[in-house]
From TrEMBL:
Gene3D superfamilies: Globins. Pfam families: Globin. One of its GO terms (biological process) is hydrogen peroxide catabolic process. Belongs to the globin family. It comes from the Eukaryota. Keywords: Heme, Iron, Metal-binding, Oxygen transport, Transport. This is Globin domain-containing protein.
């Protein structure tokens, strides 16, 4: 069972309240596909991913970036039960999508960079630490059903 301090709970909620999810989700996924180009292999049906400009303006990438944020919000609403909440999602990524689980951390890091750029000075080391812990728990939950 993950223990969350009151500061961590409040900080993580505050981050999701402050960020523009329709911007941050697409920006994080685009960044991941650009910085780590091998991740594009899972999005063959998304059309034009030929370069950074194409990826950043690809409507399917943007739409999926919002889906990923929606997935994170589900974790946010179940902070004390993220692993069971993510069981089906983990099976989907493992068995159907066959996503290499090492990529989860890459997308999580891209999300952190985008959130930091949006929150600026308020993204202090303490705030960053709370967000990192949240993403570490999410990534562990997504890896859980991999064998
Ligand atoms: Ni991910 C589908 C959440 C990381 C590739 N992914 C989803 C869905 C959610 C989701 C939610 C939709 C499930 C459904 O349709 O029921 N993905 C997340 C989260 C993370 C994550 C919260 C990590 C923070 N996914 C990744 C990574 C990759 C990835 C790192 C590949 C590099 N995900 C996919 C693909 C799909 C997907 C591919 C299916 C997309 C589609 O519509 O075809």
């Amino acid at each position: 069972m993950v223990k969350w301090s009151d500061f961590e709970r409040a900080t993580i909620q505050d981050i999701f309240t402050k960020i523009d999810k329709d911007v941050v989700g697409p920006a994080a996924l685009s960044r991941c596909l650009i910085v780590y180009p091998w991740t594009q292999r899972y999005f063959g049906s998304f059309g034009n991913l030929y370069n950074a400009a194409a990826i950043s303006s690809n409507p399917k990438v943007a739409a999926h970036g919002k889906v990923v944020i929606g997935g994170l919000e589900k974790a946010l609403q179940n902070m004390d039960n993220i692993k069971p909440t993510y069981a089906d999602l983990s099976v989907l990524h493992s068995e159907k999508l066959q996503v290499d689980p090492d990529n989860f951390k890459l997308l999580a890091d891209c999300l952190t960079i985008v959130v930091a750029s949006h929150l600026g000075k308020s993204f202090t080391p303490d705030v960053h630490a709370a967000f990192q812990k949240f993403l570490d728990v999410v990534v562990a939950a997504l890896r859980k059903q991999y064998h």
